[in-house]
Design goal:
The chain is of the alpha/beta class. The protein contains nine helices and eight strands. Strands 2-3-1-4-8 form a five-stranded parallel sheet. Strands 6-5-7 form a three-stranded antiparallel sheet. α2 crosses α3. The longest helix is centred in the last third of the chain and has 14 residues. It binds adenosine monophosphate.
């Protein structure tokens, strides 16, 4: 049985791209707490209404709320998961081990990148609203401008929190909260570091070698 993967990395460090590749080539299921929260906002559910402002400001949503949403959207009996965007702090790391994984094997993958490079990556990120494919207007443009290569949709959108004024806050929150998470996995001997500035294929190979 392959281990579950726990992706840790600043916004824009390439977690979503690797998750999509591991999904299509290795059968992992991708669960992103950010995506789950954005879906609640789109549905205008009471949870969505509650978290919208916090997310628009680039701050973290409460631990309690996120774990409830995560638990409702996974089934560890049937799938191997990539946890993307969870955990974001030490308490979430402990909750993931104690209440979700409960002894199932898992490896944390840290996408290391110079923070200075992320602002350009994030402001140029576009996501297909219909199939979720991620583009970057600098490094991974769609073949035809404004049209998704995968599904042909013309709905390539910028996330509300990928605007420059919110990005700096998101990066600050990441830097302030992540080191206890890294130490937690490091101390347990479950941390793999990848250089997030390498090519998509090189990063994929490194992660695959740990499976
Ligand atoms: P992401 O798509 O991972 O960049 O997350 C977008 C936003 O969703 C974050 O800026 C937070 O407001 C919220 N969020 C996502 N995951 C978590 C989490 N594990 N804990 C708290 N807030 C989260």
């Amino acid at each position: 049985m392959k281990p579950h993967l726990i992706f840790i990395g600043a916004p824009g460090s390439g977690k979503g791209t690797q998750a999509a590749k591991l999904n299509s080539e290795r059968g992992f299921k991708h669960v992103s707490t950010g995506d789950l929260l954005r879906a609640e906002i789109l549905k205008k559910s009471s949870l969505g209404l509650e978290v919208k402002q916090v997310m628009d400001e680039g701050k973290l949503v409460s631990d309690e709320l996120v774990i409830r949403l995560l638990q409702a959207n996974i089934d560890l009996q049937t799938s191997q998961y990539i946890f993307d965007g969870y955990p974001r702090n030490l308490a979430q790391s402990q909750t993931l081990d104690q209440e979700v994984l409960k002894g199932s094997s898992s490896v944390a993958v840290y996408f290391e990148i110079d923070m200075g490079k992320l602002v350009a990556r994030l402001t140029n990120r576009r996501t297909c609203k219909d199939c979720g494919t991620i583009y970057n207007l600098l490094s991974k443009k769609p073949k035809n401008e404004g049209v998704c290569d995968q599904c042909g949709s013309t709905n390539l959108v910028q996330r509300a929190d990928d605007k420059e004024e919110v990005i700096s806050n998101r990066l600050k929150v990441f830097q302030e909260t992540i080191s206890p998470v890294l130490s937690y996995y490091q101390d347990l001997g479950r941390l793999v570091r990848v250089d997030a500035e390498k090519s998509v294929d090189e990063i994929f190979q490194k992660i695959s070698s740990k499976l």
